[in-house]
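Hello,

Our lab assistant flagged a job as stuck in the queue for most of the afternoon. It eventually completed. Since we weren't sure the result was trustworthy after the delay, we are filing this so someone can double-check. Below is the sequence as submitted and the structure that was eventually returned. Let us know if re-running is recommended.
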Amino acid sequence: MFNNVSYQRLNLMISLFLILTIVSVYVQVGTFDFVDFDDSLYVTENSYVQKGLTIEGCIWAFTTSHAGNWHPLTWLSHMLDSELYGLNPAGHHYTNIAFHIANTLFLFFILFRMTGALWKSAFVAALFAVHPLHVESVAWVSERKDVLSTFFGLLMIGAYYRYIKAPGFKNYLLVVIFLSIGLMSKPMLVTFPFVLLLLDFWPLKRIQFKNNYHLQPERSTYHGFKGIFQLIVEKIPLFILSVISCILTFIVQKSGGAVVPLEALPLKARIANALISYVSYVLKAIWPHKLAYYYPYSIDTFSVLQICGAALLITSVILGAIYLSRQYPYVLVGLFWYFGTLVPVIGLVQVTNQAMADRYTYIPLIGLFIVVVWSVPDILKKWHYHKIFLCVSAVIILPALTTRAFFQASHWKNSISLFKNAVKVTENNYHALNNLATALADKGKYDEAFLYLNRALKMDPQREDVRMNLANILFLKGKPDEAISQYREILQTDSKNADTHYNLAYVLSTQGKLDDAVLHYKKTLRIDPEYSKAHYNLGNIYLNQGKTTEAFMHYAEVIKIKPDYIQAYNKLGLILFRQGKFNKAKVFFLKAIQIDPNYSKALKNLKKLNQTLSSRGEINYSVPNEPLHE
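-- returned structure --
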């Protein structure tokens, strides 16, 4: 038996081991870039986030549906990172690592407190720490919502254990608060009230039937099905929070066009994909290979036999867990943890077109880890050498997973390496091919990008986003006529595509075909009145044509839609300056400089305005930060 001092030393040693193991996998991400997979939405092109923590940003975080989600705490977290690190990706990556370390330690201590099983709890935490399926949640800046929500979810479980030990309003209120904050980080936690019910069964032993499950029951013990009902009633406030979160999430995602309608993807296909995904996640947990940032929806590749086999396997496993629940309750709890926490992301309500995602396993795999770590020793306990076998297995498994996770994390170095890996390990992945082509084009590698886009089009000739990128690259390669032809073909099948009208208008304007360009810019704005770039470019055409009233109107719309659009402020200032309205022009130049003190055009224009005023003997409005005049 260990005394308290020995346990404290062991806890410290285990904690240090977990931290060092995580660092060995993820220290490399400090040199990684942001990637062209939602990082622009969350950080690199998000003006509210880039400004850091501001009152305006906080209001926006709680009211926006940007990126198809309502997760204000996640936005605030990114804002704090921008406040501290700016656009240096290292700091944003290190914050994710810090939360992953905290989650791993919380998981270890919570399991240990609830079960009293030190080494089993430690091994579950170690698997959680280094499993390659968890790399996406940690190495991807935009997936901050995953590690952040799990942080508060585990705090909620810890607070719940405290509440059981000392029932009372204050302790229960902590549970409610942590769940609320967690749901405002990511709605994945909507299943956590059910997780608490599972923990009531094991290891907390709050619900008793006939058998003793090897653990002493907690202070508040309930009996039979009446007890289950009482425990459900106890959690009604938590269920209400989950329901509210589900409704908000569905409304936000549907309004943002992220929810795939049943007409596009029938319910039968969703159920089939869910069954296959449940089994696939388990297989990837056991043998984590061919991991990618995006798995295309390929339900047609699965036979009826495979789908029925997956359904039969899942049903058999669940029935077996129920049968064994009296003697091995952790099997039931772990399996239902896995199946239950995956429900929000298993695809019954389909968001985007991916079949599955590694990041969705961040919380659910905890259930499978519990099943394996608790059941294997019980199965082998009669074998004389079972302890040696378990130690040797741990020595083999953990370094193997750590190594695999290290190499998986290395793919997140930049956009090109991330998308190339997905193209390599998946089949018919038009999404990865399209993104890889875009990333290559951004680096000026147009020929290579062109090849990948052609591969994507062969898979699905009707993909408008791929054809759009193909047209864009044709323009960048100096083939505007071919690009125009591609844009017009897209519009023949989808005349209400605002991006296509905008791109066509832009290319036409470079060709000097201004009347046609104006026509398509106007069509862009009829489809999407808040398309700021269309307003700005249309304003530029009108300004060059001497139509200053129309130009002014469009520039004014730009700053109404996007208050940090410095080029529009500069153009508004120019129009007013030319009209002799110097005081008003000064306001717009200063506003542009306030947003970006290094914006040279506004600085030069303001300097010219000052010189004009000085020559007229009027007030000279000085520019802040004189050295920036250069």
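-- support follow-up --
The delay was a queue issue, not a problem with the job. The result is valid. Strands lie at 207-208, 222-223, 295-296, 354-356. The chain is about 70% helix and 0% strand.
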